[in-house]
Amino acid sequence: MKLDHLVINVAANYQQESEEVQQIKKAGLPYNIKKGKGTKGFKATNIWTGNEYFELITIKNNDGGGWKPEWVHAYNSGHRGLICLMIDVNNIDAHVQRFQKEGIFISNPERIKIEFFFKLFSKTMPWQNSFLNFFEKIPLQIGFQQMDSEKIRKGFEKYMVPNSKENNISGIAKIHISGDFTISDYQMLRTVFEKTIDNENQLIVQLENSQEIIFEKAKDYSVKALLKNDNSSFSRKTCEIENILINID
Fold first, then answer.
1. Chain centroid to CA 39
2. For 204-231, how does the pLDDT look when each residue is reduced to its tens digit (9 = 90+)?
């Protein structure tokens, strides 16, 4: 398992020429607001950091135009910030079967199908997704994704531009999520992830490539993302995307 991307509900100004977008770029994260995908109901733009990324979502009408219904409802109800943490896996069926045997609810693997032009045309994405339930008191869920093949994964790399690799920012090293996690939430996380460490009011998940996710008990829901950086000129720069503070160190 490794980090793949963060799905973030954002206000429209994060997809327009704005002060927020300028701050993202000043932090060393190239970001093209004109690139991405969408329908009449939603718009997605990406900030690429190596092979991982931040997926920024705005919902343009009540039905969301084919976007995940639970996320559309959360957006229309006022939620802004991280709504899903996506984990890349090699065998999604095996993980789903293991979770289900452990009594953890997870949706069956399915493909995203986006419909266009009044549902006359559609495009099915070459990957499968499964999702755990939302945490009990936090508007956040964890999803798992498997690409159809390594060839398809490599083919996507040419679309991952502009990419922060040009500034020697090569990926996401750590995600630190603070919020009102419950005992049941922590029990679920210990079962889902094979390598976890309990540290006072934190649960630390260790993933491939030395990546970490920290789940910390706190009153308010907030997120910090630490990016890998090999360029001292961008050291200790930060920017914010809704409830996410991005640190480049």
1. 20
2. 999 998 999 999 999 999 999 999 988 7
